[in-house]
Design brief:
Blueprint: H1 10-20, H2 29-42, E1 46-52, E2 56-63, E3 69-71, H3 76-80, E4 88-90, H4 103-106, E5 113-120, E6 126-134, H5 142-177, E7 181-187, E8 195-200, H6 202-208, H7 219-238, E9 247-254, E10 260-271, E11 278-287, H8 288-330, H9 340-355, E12 362-370, H10 373-380, H11 382-399, E13 405-410, E14 413-421, H12 424-436, E15 442-443, E16 448-449, E17 453-459, H13 467-483, E18 489-491, H14 494-515, E19 519-528, E20 536-547, E21 550-552, H15 554-564, H16 567-588, E22 589-591, E23 599-603, H17 606-610, H18 614-625, E24 632-637, H19 638-643, H20 645-658, E25 661-667, H21 674-680, E26 684-687, H22 689-692, H23 707-719, E27 723-726, H24 732-740, E28 745-746, H25 759-769, E29 775-777
This protein binds ligand C2E and calcium ion (2 copies).
One calcium ion is lined by residues 540, 603, 635, 665.
């Protein structure tokens, strides 16, 4: 075990080391050269300049070895610095009990010879060593040790000079940037009769008009030199007496431009530590006139401040009076709440301070719109309606703090502005206070009335450029709340805008599109997988929209149409179109051998399905086209059915009565249970294409994307005698695996992409897929 011995002056020693500012600096050629020299005159393969830090021996330069650091307790140099005034020589480390089991001796690189001299800082502390090392044992001559010592002193001189230079640079920086004038005077002879100005800073030049080279020609320069001489004489004869060395004088002197400068001067001697003689005098000059002006200024500022306060009082008073007058203009008569104008003013101020980031707190705007207020107004009468509004206003007011602004924005719309909200959690909290305000019934003297509100909230962001934008977003959020079923609360988010604008955008163009017949259907073949020759069993009708802006995919316009409710007329149009097409085909097709006519599957969206006219729509489409209901299948998703199970069952029963088939679309992506599957008694399940090919037109795998789920769905469906159709078959391997699992039918790019409705393209599809000519298109 190697114990670390620490010199008695350790903390001062470390301070001296730090002052050198050398640790962890990169190698320097100047010092590398010194170390190389040491190796050369000691005749050793290795030499190093090592600095002994608190817990490590760090190598600044080394010869023959890479620069590295060693744990302090393992370094020879840690021992060397224990005797600052003597070198340490180890002629054979293996025979020295201090080092014999040192890993650098016992192991790599196997040092045996060491000669090190301490590096002594100006303060007298040993900060490191210059040493020579060898892996063979040998002696060292006295002249070699002496050379090492001289070299070590030289290195320390280099380092000391460098740190003095660094300090000087720092001091100069201070002087250059000081607002006081700085003058350094050089005192040459013992009698101090030769004295010159060695340095002046910019502030001095500004103060006197004299630059460095001409400073001693000016009046102030000459005064300074006189003062310096006087001071030097005093120090010379009287000796130094600490603090008293500094002279402070107030002088007036002519500037270079003739003006008079009033200056306060303080002069301090700089005495050499070695000789005790005064070497420099440093003078600091301050513009006295400027100081007086500043003093006067601050007195005036105080007076102004006093006057200001009085004025402010007056302004506040006047504003209060004005407010009382304008209350009528800014407040709602019925409820006594601030009105829209006033609210916007308050919001403007909040937005202003959010933008200027004056506060780290946030502001939140809440938009509360009463649900079905009109109905209450109509049924209970206007008087009750008014009472309700007053009651709501009171409830809202008592739900918030005094500093929050509650306003009646319009008829049955209330707005609240919360300022000083700490974070999102608190924002949710304050908005909740508004939500809770509608939990209890409102007491309207004669009646208790329940009313709910749809509540939208927006956080005031610095990115808003106007209060109208904030209000718009709160309004959008409120709208979304209302849409999601009233009595809800919704915070604004960017997604809502996209939805809002997408909807707003489509709203117009979707309606136009219906009129302009921009929609059409394409037909994707569904083939039977249970028979070897893959006969065509039917088609799925898929909607397409070629708008003036190009093709818009159904994944975009169907949700938009659902959002606006346009899906109902659009769906009806598509259903009619599909039935017409099916009728045309049936008229064009001849069958033989009892083969069924091709069927057509039509997608039905949730909104359409729950609309009260849905069954009528289906009836009309069937009646108008004259198709057999049995060759029409409606594709519904699990989610559509699960949203309202009771209603779904009734509608499904009516459809079954008519003989229309039901396909459960996108199966596996929703949450339909086995029990429901039985209750709904659908005809087919469509395995969602994410389990089949998984991709968007480029299958992620050759085989099935999720064979386990596919297998489970097929066996579940078959146990309920439900046919299985796989969607999105893209590869031959997927088809083969599906056939092996007993899947009944399938569709996908492997067989055909959706086709235009022309009978030629359909015939091409049929003949390409079905080799058995059990049915044929008639030439039309
Ligand atoms: P969906 O009902 O699941 O329709 C199947 C979708 O998969 C179609 O996309 C079809 O083109 C696509 N597809 C078919 N085979 C493959 C294949 O091998 N690989 C890949 N990657 N995709 C394949 P489409 O036509 O873009 O329709 C997307 C969705 O839009 C439909 O999904 C359906 O939810 C809705 N949609 C389409 N037409 C109508 C419609 O007339 N009414 C309603 N309500 N929704 C429709
Ligand atoms: Ca479908
Ligand atoms: Ca599907």
């Amino acid at each position: 075990m190697i114990a670390l011995e620490v010199p008695s002056d350790e903390s001062a020693r470390l301070a001296a080391l730090r002052a050198l500012d050398i640790l962890d600096t990169p190698p320097e050629p100047e010092i590398d050269a010194v170390v190389r020299l040491a190796a050369s005159f000691c005749n050793t393969p290795y030499a190093m300049l090592v600095l002994v830090d608190a817990d490590r021996a760090w190598t600044k330069a080394s010869f023959g070895l890479p620069n590295a650091e060693a744990p302090r307790e393992l370094s020879f140099c840690s021992t060397t610095i224990l005797t600052p005034h003597a070198p340490m020589i180890v002629t054979d480390a293996t025979r020295d009990e201090r080092f014999a089991d040192n890993p650098y001796v016992a192991g790599e690189p196997g040092f045996r010879f060491y000669a090190g001299v301490p590096l002594i800082a100006e303060s007298g502390h040993a900060v490191g060593t210059l040493c020579a090392l060898d892996t063979v044992a040998h002696a060292i001559e006295p002249y070699q040790i002496e050379a090492l010592e001289v070299t070590a002193r030289y290195v320390m001189m280099l380092l000391a000079k460098r740190s003095v230079e660094a300090r000087l640079r720092l001091l100069e920086l201070v002087a250059v940037h000081a607002s006081d004038g700085v003058v350094i005077m050089d005192i040459d002879s013992a009698a101090a009769q030769t004295c010159r100005i060695a340095y002046v800073n910019d502030a001095f030049t500004n103060l006197t008009g004299y630059a460095e080279g001409e400073a001693d020609r000016g009046e102030l320069g000459r005064t300074l030199l006189d003062l310096a001489r006087e001071q030097s004489r005093r120090v010379e004869f009287v000796g130094r007496d600490g603090e008293g060395d500094t002279i402070i004088e107030a002088v007036t002197a002519r500037r270079k431009d003739g003006d008079i400068a009033e200056v306060e001067i303080s002069l301090s001697p700089v005495v050499s530590r070695d000789t005790g003689r005064m070497e420099y005098v440093v003078a600091i000059l301050r513009d006295a006139a400027e100081r007086k002006r500043v003093l006067k200024e601050s007195a005036r500022t105080e007076a102004v401040a006093l006057a200001n306060t009085a004025l402010q009082h007056e302004i506040v008073e006047r504003r209060r009076a004005e407010e009382r007058l304008s209350h009528a203009a800014s407040h709602d008569e019925l409820t006594g709440l601030p009105n829209r104008t006033y609210f916007k003013e308050c919001l403007e101020r909040s937005l202003q301070s959010v933008r200027e980031a004056k506060r780290s707190r946030m502001s939140v705007v809440v938009f509360a719109d009463l649900d079905r207020f009109k109905k209450i107004n109509d049924s209970l009468g206007h008087l009750m309606g008014d009472r309700l509004l007053v009651a709501v206003a009171g409830r809202l007011r008592s739900a918030v703090r005094n500093s929050d602004v509650v306003a009646r924005f319009a008829g049955d719309e209330f707005t609240v502005l919360f300022n000083g909200v700490r974070d999102n959690a608190e924002a949710a909290n304050v908005v909740n206070r508004i939500t809770r305000a509608f939990r209890e019934p409102f007491d309207l003297e004669t009646d208790d009335v329940f009313i709910t509100a749809s509540i939208g909230a927006a956080i005031v962001q610095p990115s808003y450029s106007s209060v109208d934008e904030v209000l718009r977003d709160a309004d959008i959020a409120m709208f979304a709340a209302k849409e999601s079923g009233r009595a809800r609360t919704q915070f604004f988010n960017q997604e809502l805008t996209h939805r809002f604008f997408a909807v707003a955008d489509f709203e117009g163009s979707l309606f136009g599109a219906l009129q302009n017949r921009e929609f059409r259907l394409v037909y994707q073949p569904i083939v039977s997988l249970s028979r070897a020759n893959l006969p065509l069993q039917g088609f799925e009708a898929l909607a397409r929209w070629r708008s003036v802006n190009g093709e818009i995919p159904p994944t975009r316009f169907i949700p938009a149409a659902e959002e606006t409710g346009l899906i109902v007329p659009l769906g009806e149009w598509l259903l009619n179109e599909a039935c017409q097409r099916l009728a045309t085909w049936h008229a064009q097709v001849t069958t033989s051998g009892g083969v069924a006519l091709p069927t057509l599957s039509v997608n039905v969206s949730a909104k359409q399905f729950v609309s009260s006219h849905f069954i009528e729509q289906v009836d009309r489409a069937i009646a108008n086209s004259g198709v057999s209901p049995a060759s029409l299948a409606l594709e519904l998703t699990e989610t559509t059915l699960m949203e309202n199970v009771e209603r779904a069952q009734t509608v499904l029963a009516s459809l079954r009565e008519r003989g229309v088939k039901i396909h459960l679309d996108d199966f596996g992506t929703g949450y339909c249970s086995f029990g429901y599957l039985r209750r709904f008694s659908v005809d087919s399940l469509k395995i969602d294409r994410s389990f089949v090919s998984g991709g968007d037109g480029t299958a992620v795998s050759e085989g099935l994307a999720d064979p386990d789920i596919v297998k489970a769905i097929i066996s579940l469906a078959h146990s309920l005698r439900i046919e299985v159709i796989a969607e999105g078959i893209e590869t031959e391997t997927q088809r083969r695996e599906l056939v092996a699992l007993g899947c009944d039918a399938g569709q996908g790019y492997l067989f055909s992409r959706p086709l235009e409705s022309s009978s030629e393209s359909l015939e091409r599809a049929r003949s390409a897929m079905a080799n058995d000519a059990s049915w044929n298109w008639k030439a039309s």
